[in-house]
Write the structure tokens for this entry.
Amino acid sequence: MNGEDSPYMVELEGLVARLGSMGSRKVLIQSPLGLRGEAVRISQLLSGLGVASYISSSNCWGGCDIAYSEAERLGVDTIIHLGHTPFMRRDRVRTIYLECRHTDPKPLESLIPQILDVLDDAKSVGLAASIQWLDHLGTISSALERRGVKALISKPYMFSQYVGQVLGCDYSSLLPLESWVDCYIIVGSIFHALGAALLTRKMTVAVDPHSQAVKNLGEMRERVLRQRYAYITAFRKARKVGVVSSVKPGQARFGLADLLARLLRSKGFEAYLITADEVGPETLDDFRLDGYVNTACPRLSLEDQARMGKPFLLPMETLVALNLLEWGYVVENGVLMYPWGWSPAGGRIFWKILRGEEPSTGKDMRSQEISCA
Amino acid sequence: MNGEDSPYMVELEGLVARLGSMGSRKVLIQSPLGLRGEAVRISQLLSGLGVASYISSSNCWGGCDIAYSEAERLGVDTIIHLGHTPFMRRDRVRTIYLECRHTDPKPLESLIPQILDVLDDAKSVGLAASIQWLDHLGTISSALERRGVKALISKPYMFSQYVGQVLGCDYSSLLPLESWVDCYIIVGSIFHALGAALLTRKMTVAVDPHSQAVKNLGEMRERVLRQRYAYITAFRKARKVGVVSSVKPGQARFGLADLLARLLRSKGFEAYLITADEVGPETLDDFRLDGYVNTACPRLSLEDQARMGKPFLLPMETLVALNLLEWGYVVENGVLMYPWGWSPAGGRIFWKILRGEEPSTGKDMRSQEISCA
């Protein structure tokens, strides 16, 4: 759809054809905040075609958060999921992933002078964007190259599906560029860029066309890392802790939560397994525990930490709190990333530490386990 | 449990015996906010018995909101549900309902002078409480009778399971007392009493031991009713509206939502079916519709209305907005109540109006349909 008042390009002809060929009669349309106008438009279109539709108003945080349960309760035959690319290895309910790409390059183009300004004397940059802005990376790379700055665009890796794409939790596609670039430019929300900044020591520039912001995240990176270490230190003084997992399809890491709880108990903590669909400070606070470990969405530990009050550590940070891993090592390899977010291939040391099989020694902590499909 | 620092009486011996006889090995403990300390205690107890437990941190709004989906995802064999009595006619996952009654009558006793004060010259009162305070209704009734005020305690009816019990959405047990009492006294949160106040024209006194408040809700009733009518009027000017249903097991009224959407379309509205697990202003706002109809928890229309901004009408209010029912009739019969909340027996007029079979005529709008099991 590219309605006169829609800022997004959505492939409606393809959608209608696919629904027709599948014989879909009743669908659930799921979308993140910001794309719900598109969901209403699609519902209206389908209504004219005789396909019944529900629009989900539940939160939707990514391709990890597909509304299978809601779809099953409603008895729909198909989910139409807007705004994210596939993350799950298989869908429990048939799911059509429908991208919503911004059609208008202007909000991005207008930021180019600011981008060039903040780049300083970088000669080579790594470029990536969230799926909504992917069509306009060429706009930036051309402008950069005209000024003599070489622009490298990342290849799909791990959970990203397209050249140049980053997700809110997976920045691994940026790593192969590391030795070739002086700087990263990430188009999307500030958080997309913060995730990248926490993965690399290279300068990272956030470009948010929506809020018209261009920002070097160097200071923010340092502040977040200092705060994370303070929470790790605070966690060491905790006695009663919760190990939190989510039942969201792409965030369900019950095995990891169980291993972490056992490890914590072996170190003298009282550890409880806590679950939720939506994990949040409002509902965790009532347990009045001293600290939490988060095995659900890694962004929660950064975005909700201030509202949590209590430490809300990522799995690797927990190993640091237990003196099983060096903080410097986590910082070097990327604090936001789950062990399996760094690379699908490589080391098994994280899991070995977790299982108590091996002390922290090597630099090779890259796990081949991707356990959320 | 009646631990030295727990304000609740929880029958732990019975729980342990039942889990043992059922052979439960892995449970999910679910509780509303305020009772999560008990959930942690129970998890600790079960750990010592070799029963694995998850504690749910999801919101839990009542006996309508049993975490079957979460339990199914976790693969537990039993749910332990704290703080509510059974609401569902059958449980999709084996569920043990564990009451948490306040052991200490003092917070209630200390309010008795205020209660007697606010009663004015009432000679006969109807008494009810939420399950947590049920053990102490006798404390009030004795004090009242000593002052010559006759206290009548309601019988279980509809969804209430005990003498004197009211739920957050079902006050039908109060109706048989209507012609015998001058006033109702409802012990629980202010909202429990507001629900009762909206059902009756008799004076309703809220007694909240937690916040130590005693309040005649007459003014609040009038204010809420005026606001409701203002939102009904605003809804009439809407063009694009959402009919909202929840997938929560005891709130899932997809058939009602569908009927309301069809009715709205027949009256010239653009009506969309919107679903969620958690229904809330934050997630509905992004659709930018002109108004909403709520078939999920009736409390949402009162408690979240101010934050919604847009009209968020109950089904009966929607019929008023469509000029199919008199506002005065709804006020007389209780605005909070769903058609099936008034009485399980009796009239079918609500459903007939909804299906377009019959115009609004009688006073007999009591449906036998209880469609949320």
